[in-house]
């Protein structure tokens, strides 16, 4: 029995020695095994998330643009806001139909808010307020809102400007000229102009956004809008600005 055990032990040792020699031969041969970096042997994930899914709205890039009104600034979030229309919020009370407008009014120093097709105009209370102090809160509010997924407007309201079958030819021409030639230019400056009526040759218009309290709004109204309307529509004798109750109250309380 002892002899048999010795033979088995010797045979096992000899087999182990042969395996070690064979392994060393394989490892020394460059044609049999190609050395691979260690990370090649790490188990790969089943799939990779696309980078677009990893980019949150929090990282959205918001641009700012100056307007003719030094107290108004355009914030361009790089995505549609109201797409084809505009909404004006001259006072905090008027912001009941928009969660974003309500949040912006909570920032100290914000006087009014205006939504355009692809921009948001914020007007501050006075020139003494520094935009560098207001902009961080405005940026954060806009980014947080778009990240929340809430609707921009919760209650639709009519601006009363849409064309009607009851409009006569002159009014229809005025509205078409406003929509195609005048409003796009005014919106580039962070505002808008709304048709309110036509009576005795006078076109009644309401200015919104940055145009509301702009020092050059009267010049824009008379030298720009009035001249263009009179050039194309001889029936137009003049243009005047009208205000709703909220705008009149805000102007009366402004310093």
From TrEMBL:
Residues 62-149 form the Scaffold protein Nfu/NifU N-terminal domain. Coiled coil: none annotated. InterPro entries: FSCA_dom_sf, Nfu/NifU_N, Nfu/NifU_N_sf, NIF_FeS_clus_asmbl_NifU_C. It is found in: Mitochondrion. SMART domains: Nfu_N. It comes from the Eukaryota. One of its GO terms (cellular component) is mitochondrion. The keyword Mitochondrion applies. Its main location: mitochondrion. This is NFU1 iron-sulfur cluster scaffold homolog, mitochondrial.
């Amino acid at each position: 029995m002892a002899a048999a055990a010795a033979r088995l032990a010797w045979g096992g040792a000899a087999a182990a020695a042969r395996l070690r020699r064979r392994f060393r031969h394989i490892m020394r041969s460059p044609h049999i095994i190609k050395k691979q970096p260690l990370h090649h042997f790490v188990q790969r994930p089943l799939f990779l998330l696309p980078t677009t899914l990893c980019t949150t709205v929090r990282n959205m890039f918001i641009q700012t643009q100056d307007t003719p009104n030094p107290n108004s600034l355009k914030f361009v979030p790089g995505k549609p806001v109201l797409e084809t229309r505009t909404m004006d919020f001259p006072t905090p009370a008027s912001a009941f139909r928009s969660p974003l407008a309500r949040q912006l009014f909570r920032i100290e120093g914000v006087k009014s808010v205006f939504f355009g097709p692809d921009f948001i105009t914020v007007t501050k209370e006075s020139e003494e307020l520094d935009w560098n102090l207001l902009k961080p809160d405005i940026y954060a509010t806009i980014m947080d809102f778009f990240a929340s997924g809430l609707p921009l407007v919760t209650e639709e309201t009519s601006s009363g400007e849409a064309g009607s079958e009851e409009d006569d030819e002159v009014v229809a021409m005025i509205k078409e000229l406003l929509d195609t030639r005048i409003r796009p230019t005014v919106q580039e400056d962070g505002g808008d102009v709304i048709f309110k009526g036509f009576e005795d040759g006078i076109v009644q218009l309401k200015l919104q956004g940055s145009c509301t309290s702009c020092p050059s709004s009267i010049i824009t109204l008379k030298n720009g809008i009035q001249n263009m309307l009179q050039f194309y529509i001889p029936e137009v004798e003049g243009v005047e600005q009208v205000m709703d109750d909220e705008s009149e109250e805000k102007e009366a309380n402004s310093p």
